[in-house]
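Quick one: examine this chain and its backbone structure tokens and tell me how the chain folds. Here goes:
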Amino acid sequence: MYYPFLRGRQFELIALRELSQENQLQGYISSIIEPVKNSLKSLELANRVFLEHSQNNFLIVNPSVGERNGDTDFYVDFMSNLQESSFYPAFHYRGNRDYIVEKISENDLQNCLILGTNEIQSSDQAFRDVLELDAVNKVVIEDPDRNRDLKRYIQSTDIEFIRLDDLFEPEPRNSNFLQIESHRFSEEHKYYLDDNYDGFSDYTTLPSRFIEGGSSPRAVVIHLTYLNNQDQIWIRHFTSNSNDTIANVQGKFGEAAEKAVEYCRNNDLDNSAITELKQYFDEGHYPGLGMVKKISIKNHLIVVGNYLRSHN
């Protein structure tokens, strides 16, 4: 099972909604969503779509970033006030046992997921107490191989253990991607079960670091993943050429899209995300950077989902 880590920004939720409507996720992918906005409208819309298409995702109720970060009631109340919820609750663990226990008890929460870092000590009794709660059945640890004591402790329990890997390698300037060839992105989809994990997670084709807002880029890059002939996931970066100024973002998109579309057509790569990209390019339409990221996320989730489906 694949548990991609996404933020609750509009383009990320649109990607999940569209994939749910296309039946690309059900049974193989359940996203972990960290909400970052005060406005709940996008989450409410996503919830309706997920319910309609029988898709469940996890919603972090105490996000570490964004406009409502910290151990608050804001997103717990949002979930509790939904007439019907497609979301399962997720908690960041940061020595906050009392908060987690209290919110689970007050709201009768079930099927909870805990996110922790590899800096947690296996002897941390508060962490052990949280994992022993009946309402908690999944735990996610980023790069767990860096703490073998913690890894061995979790694998000795009955809880479902999911590894989170930070795979996307950002560059200080988008134009740097011009010099980077396609390269191996991930093999976790092939080996996570062999390594005694119940699931795997990543930040898709986005950086793990959360950046609020953004500015006009000097370069536009389209990041697309694909399976090679050994079932490894590789990533290729399609980058604009006219990167001296921030002017003409639409033209920069056209340059990057031309490279991406040509590569996909020459290598018989196609799915709903790539079809959308081809349509934008063929029509000379620039959809905005958010939609470019949406296409990249959709493509990656389809690539992983197709692999899991074919190897079930």
Observations:
- The chain has a mean pLDDT of 95.
- The chain has two domains: 1-165, 172-185+211-312.
- DSSP finds ten helices and eleven strands in the chain.
